[in-house]
């Protein structure tokens, strides 16, 4: 495998001005023909922001009043996964690779360099669940993926010195997701790596951590031996164009949101949380919108929604609607019966934000 390290530090002036530009980088590396080999880059957030997954509803998942009051930016990535709070205490890494049919959705493969480095410095990190890295049962990293054509990206955040209070206040995960983790709040679920760094590593910086991961990936102690590409002004012009056309638009960031009468969510192991916002009139589903933090960002959710609208609100009918909507391909390995039960059973009911 030929891999190239891309230095994006020349663009931090653009990212500081428009945080959404950082969410365009993987799309650029996946779609621009000049990047034919595998690419690894790191991103150091320059200011606090909340990044939501491609299929999430910001009104359900984010405390919009809080982030507006505290000047926290809101962006949306093209990949799936859940909402994360990032700030200068984070380090994000992203592999952008050719799909050879072996590692798409293999989060462990792309997390291994970070895990191995953390083990070397005394942190008992492990991968738990679908795409989380944890220490002592608490999450310090979440991962996401996006496939475009025959290339895909896979990466995650590493929480070193994140403002955990702001993270807790900014995010509103569904109760079904918290319940699946056996916790009551974001704050009780997440941790920084800093408390686990001892001795000579106690003052480790995000730059130090980046260097160690680079050395691990490229099997060298000398950074000068690492094949490196520095982003040019032409590159940044192309990235800014992607932001202007999609990732910086209000329609993309905020999404299209209608306040239907019911919102039910359910967490499925290995897939993530699936939510349906829907209305029922005279025993018939009249409106439906699907959300979630599942990683299949390219599925045709509208096809499922179309099958649901007009369906009698009865279990057998709902099962058939989900089956016809091909939930296996468009969401993941969840059964139509489980999704039907989610809609019918009030234990999965979520409070709709005012």
Name some characteristics of this structure.
25% strand, eight-stranded mixed sheet, 14 strands, alpha+beta, BirA Bifunctional Protein, domain 2, three-stranded mixed sheet, Enolase-like, domain 1, 15 helices, globular, 2 domains, 354 residues
- What structural class should be given to the helix and strand makeup? alpha+beta
Largest sheet: 8 strands, mixed
Rg over CA atoms: 20 Å
**Share in helix:** 25-40%
Q: Averaging pLDDT over every residue, what do you get?
A: 92
Number of domains: 2
Task: Please tally the helical runs, counting DSSP H or I stretches of 4 or more residues.
Answer: 15
**Low-confidence regions:** none
Query: What form results from the Cα inertia axes?
Result: globular
CATH homologous superfamily name of the largest domain? Bira Bifunctional Protein, Domain 2
CATH topology title of the largest domain: BirA Bifunctional Protein, domain 2
Distance between the termini: 51 Å
CATH architectural category of the largest domain: 2-Layer Sandwich
What's the quick description here?
The chain is α+β, with helices and mostly antiparallel strands. Helices cover 34% and strands 25% of the residues. The chain is built from 15 helices and 14 strands.
3D architecture notes:
The chain has 354 residues and is of the alpha+beta class. It has two domains: 3-254, Bira Bifunctional Protein, Domain 2 (BirA Bifunctional Protein, domain 2); 262-348, Enolase-like, domain 1 (2-Layer Sandwich). The chain has 15 helices and 14 strands. The protein has helices spanning 12-17, 25-31, 58-61, 64-69, 107-120, 164-170, 175-181, 186-189, 206-218, 233-247, 250-254, 301-308, 315-324, 327-330, 336-344, and strands at 3-7, 38-43, 49-52, 73-76, 84-86, 90-98, 125-128, 132-135, 138-148, 151-159, 228-230, 262-268, 272-281, 284-292. Strands 7-8-9-10-6-2-1-11 form an eight-stranded mixed beta sheet, with helices on both faces. The protein has a three-stranded mixed beta sheet with strand order 4-3-5. Strand 12 and strand 13 form a beta hairpin. It is globular and about 70 Å long.
């Amino acid at each position: 495998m030929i891999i190239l390290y891309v230095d994006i530090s020349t663009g931090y002036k653009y990212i500081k001005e428009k945080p959404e530009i950082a969410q365009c980088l993987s799309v650029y590396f996946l779609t621009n023909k000049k990047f034919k080999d595998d690419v690894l880059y790191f991103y150091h957030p320059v200011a606090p922001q909340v990044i939501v997954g491609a299929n999430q509803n910001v009104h359900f998942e984010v405390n919009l009043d809080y982030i507006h009051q505290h000047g926290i930016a809101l962006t949306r990535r093209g990949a799936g996964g859940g909402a994360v709070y990032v700030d200068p205490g984070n380090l994000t890494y992203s592999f952008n690779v050719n799909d050879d049919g072996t590692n798409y959705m293999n989060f462990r493969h792309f997390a291994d360099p970070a895990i191995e480095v953390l083990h070397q410095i005394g942190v008992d990190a492990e991968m738990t669940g679908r795409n989380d890295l944890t220490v002592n049962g608490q999450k310090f990293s979440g991962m996401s993926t996006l496939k475009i054509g025959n290339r895909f990206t896979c990466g995650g955040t590493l929480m070193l010195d994140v403002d955990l209070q702001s993270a807790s206040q900014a995010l509103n995960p569904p109760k079904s997701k918290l319940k699946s983790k056996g916790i009551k709040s974001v704050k009780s679920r997440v941790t920084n790596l800093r408390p686990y760094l001892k001795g000579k590593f106690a003052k480790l910086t995000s730059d130090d951590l980046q260097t160690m991961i680079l050395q691990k990936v490229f099997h060298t102690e000398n950074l000068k031996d690492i094949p490196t590409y520095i982003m040019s002004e032409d590159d940044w012009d192309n990235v800014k164009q992607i932001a202007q056309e999609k990732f910086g638009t209000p329609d993309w960031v905020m999404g299209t949101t209608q306040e239907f009468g019911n919102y039910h969510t359910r967490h499925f192991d290995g897939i993530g949380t699936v939510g349906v916002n829907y209305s029922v009139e005279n025993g018939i589903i009249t409106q439906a919108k699907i959300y979630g933090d599942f990683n299949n960002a390219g599925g045709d959710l509208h096809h499922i929604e179309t099958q649901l609208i007009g369906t009698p609100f009865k279990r057998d009918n709902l099962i058939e609607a989900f089956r016809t909507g091909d939930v296996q391909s468009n969401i993941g390995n969840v059964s139509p019966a489980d999704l039907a039960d989610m809609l019918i059973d009030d234990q999965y009911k979520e409070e709709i934000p005012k």
